[in-house]
């Protein structure tokens, strides 16, 4: 992949490994569904941030991912 995985729930054994949702977003994008790929990517960020915060039994201090998702959804037709 052009950029490393944003999946931080567990360590990948190789640099080129991506999370399932990251792969799905790239495939969706290749089929011309750019907007849907972007939304899936943003949902992935929301999931990752909330999962990690929950796993550490902490509140999410900064919900930047959710803010980005809401902003993108507000601009969908």
From TrEMBL:
Q: Which Pfam families match?
A: DTW (PF03942)
Q: What sort of enzyme, by top EC class, is this?
A: transferase
Residue ranges of every copy of the DTW domain listed in the record = 2-51
> What biological processes does GO assign it?
tRNA processing
**Keyword hit for Transferase:** yes
- Key words, A-Z: S-adenosyl-L-methionine, Transferase, tRNA processing
Note the InterPro entries from the entry.
DTW
Tell me yes or no: is S-adenosyl-L-methionine among this UniProt entry's keywords.
Answer: yes
What GO MF annotations does this protein's record show? tRNA-uridine aminocarboxypropyltransferase activity
Q: What is its EC number?
A: 2.5.1.25
Highest taxon of source: Bacteria
What's the protein called, per UniProt?
tRNA-uridine aminocarboxypropyltransferase
Species assigned in the record: Photobacterium damselae subsp. damselae (Listonella damsela)
